[in-house]
Amino acid sequence: MSMINYASREINCKLVYYGTGLGGKTTNLEYIYSRVNPETKGKMISLATETERTLFFDFLPVDLGEIRGFKTRFHLYTVPGQVYYNASRRLILKGVDGLIFVADSQATRAEANIEAMHNLQENLETYGYDLQRIPFAIQYNKRDMPNILTAEDLRSQINPMGVPDFEAIAIEGKGVFETLSTVSKLVVKNLS
Questions:
Q1: Residues 98, 13: contact at Cβ < 8 Å?
Q2: DSSP state of 149
Q3: Per residue in 7-52, pLDDT tens?
Q4: Contact 141/24 with Cβ under 8 angstroms?
Q5: Has this prediction a pTM greater than 0.90?
Q6: CA–CA separation, 46 and 186 (whole Å)
Q7: Alpha carbon distance 122, 192 (integer Å)
Q8: How does 146-178 read in b/e, with b if 16+ C-beta sit within 10 Å?
Q9: Which domains are seen in the chain, by residue range?
């Protein structure tokens, strides 16, 4: 899970954004990256093939404080949205410290959300990870779109465990930092 860098006195934690294709995972990372202090973040890296893309960047939030004299650096990743790239999705989950599931609120995407959630659980099981033990939140994105499901309907479909969840419009930044902050604090609490 988290890696300790004694030379820089940092604990490196991996947060993964998981969900359906075109659900808003990349939009979340791009919004966060655009708002994080340039002095505390690394470069955004896009690992792209012809048909899939994974984004990554790291940053050092100053508001979370230190753990036993170590700063906490977060590495944020997205997974490819298409289940076709399941091997990539599974590989990105290796060593995960926290998860954010980005659900598409549009009614036409309900089945895709359910499939992506099942896929997440299956991929975590390959590493022996238990979703109930990993800091985890769900974001109901695209709340500005027409023909969306209610938050209650989305909860009943993909959040039976009752993990923290947030309504969001990632393209506008609504709910983006609230979701990230919640999972980040849960990760830090696990480390303490």
A1: yes
A2: P
A3: 888 898 999 999 998 999 989 999 999 999 888 888 888 876 666 6
A4: yes
A5: yes
A6: 27
A7: 28
A8: eebbeeeebbeebbeeebbbbbbbbeebbbbbe
A9: 3-191 (3.40.50.300)
